[in-house]
Amino acid sequence: MREHLENARLMWAGAVAFLLILCSAFLAPSRACAAEQPSDVVPPIVVHLYDPDSVVSSRSWFGGTLTLVTEQTFVPHNFDGSNVGIEMTASCSVNGTFTVSLYRSSFLGNSLVGTAAFKRNGFTKATWEGVGSGTYFFVCRKSADSKVVTSSDVAMYSW
Questions:
Q1: What is the C-alpha separation between 117 and 88, in angstroms, rounded?
Q2: Which of 87, 71, 80 is nearest to 151 (CA)?
Q3: Three-class HEC string of 130-147
Q4: In terms of CB atoms within 10 Å, which end of the chain has fewer, N or C?
Q5: Contact, 156 vs 120, CB < 8 A?
């Protein structure tokens, strides 16, 4: 009887271990290789001139401000349209550019959708079309040159 109980315990432990391994393969996010990322990146449509006739009727709209020293991450928001965009009029003591990256957020982690170059001075709008509804956030980055890029009219939206 004791040998029968020991065999049952070992079978049970083996089954549990197998299930844990099987579940971890499906539930644990895998780290993407850098070579894999560009195929998923969606190129943005970038505009540097404000055109009031090109304003789209947004389904989701969120406002914010930018005070960019080297990196600023905007909080994630749920966008209910299939296209996502960001626009702002930036100001800085020197000319140049900074990048704005769009990330999709999910329970499996964050994934880069695409990156656009924005002017440090003046209006820039970038849109990513056909990305689908979901939770997204923007990250602005620039070189550490001791200059600050600001904007009080950041608009993040979907349609």
A1: 12
A2: 87
A3: CCCCEEEEEEEECCCCCC
A4: N
A5: no
Q: What are phi and psi of 48, to 5 degrees?
A: -110, 0
* Parallel, antiparallel or unpaired: strands 97-106 and 77-79: unpaired
CB hemisphere CA count around 136 (13 angstroms): 28
DSSP 51: -
- Tell me the C-alpha distance between 54 and 7, whole Å: 72
How far is the C-alpha of 40 from the C-alpha of 17, rounded, in Å?
A: 34
Closest CA to 142 of 121, 112, 111, 126: 121
Amino acid present at 22:
L
Residue pair 65/151 in contact by the 8 Å Cβ criterion: yes
Q: How far apart are CA 44 and CA 124, in angstroms?
A: 12
Q: What is the DSSP string of 72-139?
A: EEPPPEEE-SS-EEEEEEEB-SS--EEEEEEEEEETTEEEEEEEEEEESSEEEEEEETT--SEEEEEE
> Are the CB atoms for 98 and 140 separated by under 8 Å?
yes
Quote the distance between the C-alpha of residue 96 and its chain's center: 23
Which of the two residues, 118 and 16, has the higher pLDDT score? 118
